[in-house]
Amino acid sequence: MQQVTLNNGLQMPQLGYGVFKVPEEEVYQAVLEALHAGYRSIDTAMIYENEAGVGRALRDSGIPRDEIFLTTKVWNADQGYAETLAAFETSVTKLGVDYVDLYLIHWPMPNDNRYVETWQALEELYKQGKTKAIGVSNFHIPHLKRILEEGTIVPVVNQIELHPFLNQEEIRLFCKEHGIVVEAWSPLMKGRDALTDPVITQIAASKNKTPAQVILRWHLQHDVIAIPKSVTPSRIRENLAVFDFELSADEMQQIDALNQNQRTGSNPDEMHKK
After folding, report:
1. Which of 178, 185, 193, 255 lies 20 to 30 angstroms, CA to CA, from 263?
2. With contact defined as beta carbons under 8 Å apart, do 110 and 143 qualify?
3. Domains and CATH numbers, the chain
4. Catalytic-residue membership of 99
5. Among residues 28, 39, 48, 103, which one is catalytic?
6. Are 74 and 104 in contact (CB under 8 A)?
7. Of 136, 47, 42, 135, whose CA–CA distance to 97 is shortest?
8. Is the pTM of this model over 0.90?
């Protein structure tokens, strides 16, 4: 597993396992499967309603806690300084852990205008050692600029929707300039058009790899952290088998050219859901 060094010196696996919308009754077995396959980074969130199952799988896996990189997130309805501190305690209680490795603001919710005070709560949690790193999710450049201007700690990560049809080049360049690592949610476009695109399928055939493996390799070569999600054991393992080949510069450019700014999720500027 390749590691990415975050701006505070912490190392994070470049390929992780996401559990978005995996029900509580399924997530335990799925996370165990992922850990036994070789994943060491697990990404969950309060709103996924599966933190308890994730935590149980971590404990039952037999893998030492300090070898697993655990991420969770504060939900929109819990933004605000005191609310975020309370939400964090709820999450670690459900997870059954003493600390998390990365705590994120899930969405900026710019109309609520509370993400700066929420960030200040994350800074406090970090200073207390309750989380080893803090970051954001779904933040556009104006949101990031406010955090950089009004906060005292630079986020280690910005987790955003990113795949070949939404390559987020502008945000990636901004984050790179400021030492923020980009992490891709929905890296495989939730199994939609990117997996059947002729450019990707042709490259996959030439490499004797699957389209999913080619897309994940594209993320890695852009220095992006990817957190694919699957509950199918064979695909969980398939998504890990991306460290034994490389895409050429021309192949990378071909995939880059597929960008259509096409989202599968909400636009952070328009997100109102609490």
Report:
1. 178
2. yes
3. 3-191+222-243 (3.20.20.100)
4. no
5. 48
6. yes
7. 42
8. yes
